[in-house]
């Protein structure tokens, strides 16, 4: 017997996606007396904490300890290596659980919609980040880091991560859990300049302060900001002083003023922040050779937003690689109503909607696939709590009471579909293997990047 409160009858929930939002929801559901089966397409849990968060930020990944505690609770099962849409469908889960919570994140990228976007050497940040973090799907991708200049489009924290990873010094890179293939490649990189291209000004940059400050402390790279970019247009200057602006924006501008006053120290690399430029075309015959950009000015729109408006002044920046870091986007899944504009599951406060706008009983969403790709790991805790509150309300109202197959029947179903499903014990073996491999090198882990290798380790097969 546990002393946790239990719902009126024992209710079983499938949570799909073992990233932060899925794990927070799972922890909260278990605490409320539900049983939870947590599914992920990968045998490895933790979503973007493993495959997104920059490897030189190991402290951020410590949140996995919270998730590990959740996994030890009674009523928890992990089904790794099970893909919703390939191995199981939403309808099949709905038939087997009292409630299904979608937590599968936003795995693809927004598009610029400009000519040359798909040229060799033009890459979405989503894939580059997954590559250096050892996500099995992207392990064989290739990036031409012989380029002298790389342009990163976008002014968010992911753009900063990408820029920083490209210019990290060997002593900053090698102690991390960056995938081995990426350490070798990044270490041999010839890149001298990484240009971060913002379509709006420094006041509107989506960076957060610690991440921006970190750019000023790199061992091998100077950070360059042009003083003239800090002469803000009147609308931006007014906005920055107003209550609408966030302290983060004001502090960002202050940090950048500090950078603009610096004299480069002659480090072998530079991260250059360019503002008020939008990409118009990515240029090259077979491979990226440059990017045509147009100068913008800031204009206040009718809704009060400060928008980038092209002035017509254009120039070409020569570069050998472009990384498009303009936000993540959800992938629509058959059988779940999708909001194309937002790139997320259609939902109201976490309750999934049908195509006609009515609520689909027993289906919920959490995290980035519920609210869109913004917010830090902790944001997903409150977000999950909001959705779990809806599940509790529905359970209390008797809405989720239909008879369902028992836990053993579900286990048999999953194993029939995915015979080598990775359980939590399987993941623990992978975890031990990776951390043991990292220890002699002074690294947190050496990541396995091949699914077959992970499957062998999870099954206890010696290699
Ligand atoms: C590059 C990057 C760096 C970041 N760095 C930080 C940071 O330093 N600090 C911070 O606080 N926040 C950071 N964030 C934000 C943080 O990672 C997100 O807030 C958080 O991961 C979102 O959680 P989620 O569970 O909604 O999605 P995700 O973390 O994306 O998890 C989704 C899970 O669903 C699984 N999945 C996907 N499709 C399927 C399917 N069809 N079937 C089954 N499973 C599926 C995936 O494998 C994944 O495990 C970063 C984000 C990015 C993109
Ligand atoms: N260390 C950390 O804490 C960390 C690290 C990484 C990510 N994260 C978080 O993860 C979330 C996602 O980060 P993100 O960087 O992917 O997204 P983001 O913060 O939303 O930034 C996206 C950037 O892309 C720009 N953009 C969008 N469309 C564009 C276009 N067509 N042309 C040019 N630029 C365009 C945006 O500019 P506009 O503002 O003009 O739209 C913005 O600068 C954020 O909440 C972030 O803070 C946190």
> Structurally, how many domains make up the residues?
2
Topology, number of strands: 20
Give me the CATH fold name of the largest domain: FAD/NAD(P)-binding domain
Number of helices: 16
User: Order of strands side by side in the largest beta sheet?
Assistant: 3-2-1-4-20-19-18
Helix content: 25-40%
Low-confidence stretches: none
Label the overall shape: globular
Classified by CATH, the class of the largest domain is Alpha Beta
* CATH architecture call of the largest domain: 3-Layer(bba) Sandwich
CATH H-level superfamily of the largest domain: FAD/NAD(P)-binding domain
Bound molecules: flavin-adenine dinucleotide, NADP nicotinamide-adenine-dinucleotide phosphate
* SS strand fraction: 15-25%
Task: Quickly give the structural class.
Answer: alpha/beta
Distance between the termini: 41 Å
Largest sheet: 7 strands, mixed
Mean pLDDT: 96
Radius of gyration: 24 Å
What does this structure look like?
The chain has 463 residues and is α/β, with parallel strands linked by helices. The protein folds into two domains: 189 residues, 3-Layer(aba) Sandwich (Rossmann fold); 218 residues, FAD/NAD(P)-binding domain (3-Layer(bba) Sandwich). Helices cover 32% and strands 21% of the residues. The protein contains 16 helices and 20 strands. The strands form five sheets. A seven-stranded mixed β-sheet has the order 3-2-1-4-20-19-18, sandwiched between helices. Helix 15 crosses helix 16. It is globular. It starts with 11 loop residues before the first strand and ends in a 5-residue tail after the last helix. The relative contact order is 0.17. The model has no long low-confidence stretch (mean pLDDT 96). The structure holds flavin-adenine dinucleotide and NADP nicotinamide-adenine-dinucleotide phosphate. Flavin-adenine dinucleotide binds next to helix 1, strand 2, helix 6 and helix 13.
């Amino acid at each position: 017997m546990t002393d946790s409160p239990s719902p009126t009858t024992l209710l079983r929930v499938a949570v799909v996606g073992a990233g932060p939002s899925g794990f927070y929801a799972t922890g909260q559901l278990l605490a409320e007396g539900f049983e939870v089966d947590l599914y992920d397409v990968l045998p490895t849990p933790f979503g973007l904490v493993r495959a997104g968060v920059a490897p030189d930020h190991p402290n951020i990944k410590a949140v996995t300890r919270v998730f590990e505690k959740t996994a030890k609770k009674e009523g928890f099962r992990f089904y790794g290596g099970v893909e919703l849409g390939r191995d199981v469908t939403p309808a099949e889960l709905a038939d087997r659980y009292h409630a299904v919570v979608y937590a599968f994140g936003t795995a693809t990228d927004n598009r610029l919609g400009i000519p040359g976007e798909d040229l060799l050497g033009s890459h979405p940040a989503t894939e580059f980040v997954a590559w250096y973090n050892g996500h099995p799907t992207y392990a064989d991708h290739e990036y031409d880091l012989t380029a002298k200049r790389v342009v990163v489009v976008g002014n968010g924290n992911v753009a900063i991560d990408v820029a920083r990873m490209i210019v990290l010094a060997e002593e900053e890179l090698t102690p991390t859990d960056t995938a081995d293939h990426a350490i070798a490649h990044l270490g041999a990189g010839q890149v001298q300049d990484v240009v971060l291209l913002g379509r709006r000004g420094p006041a509107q940059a989506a960076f957060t302060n610690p991440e921006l400050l970190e750019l000023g402390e790199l061992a091998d790279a100077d950070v360059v900001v042009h003083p003239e970019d800090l002469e803000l247009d009147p609308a931006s200057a007014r906005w920055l002083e107003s209550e609408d602006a966030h302290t983060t924006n004001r502090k960002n501008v202050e940090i950048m003023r500090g950078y603009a006053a610096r004299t480069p120290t002659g480090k072998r690399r530079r991260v250059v922040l360019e503002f008020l430029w939008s990409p118009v075309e990515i240029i090259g015959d077979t491979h990226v050779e440059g990017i045509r950009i147009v100068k913008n000015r800031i204009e206040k729109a009718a809704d009060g937003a400060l928008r980038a408006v092209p002035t017509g002044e254009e120039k070409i920046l020569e570069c050998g690689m472009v990384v498009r870091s303009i936000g993540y986007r959800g992938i629509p899944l058959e059988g779940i109503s999708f909001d194309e504009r937002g790139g997320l599951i259609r939902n109201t406060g976490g309750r999934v909607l049908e195509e006609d706008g009515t609520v689909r009983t027993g289906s919920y969403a959490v995290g980035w696939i519920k609210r869109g790709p913004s917010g830090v790991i902790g944001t997903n805790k409150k977000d999950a709590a909001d959705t779990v509150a809806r599940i509790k309300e529905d359970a209390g109202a008797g809405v989720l009471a239909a008879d369902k197959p028992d836990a053993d029947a579900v286990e048999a179903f999953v194993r029939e579909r995915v015979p080598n499903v990775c359980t939590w014990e399987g993941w623990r073996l992978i975890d031990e293997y990776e951390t043991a491999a990292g220890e002699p090198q002074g690294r947190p882990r050496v990541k396995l990047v091949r699914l077959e290798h992970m499957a062998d380790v999870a099954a206890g097969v010696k290699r």
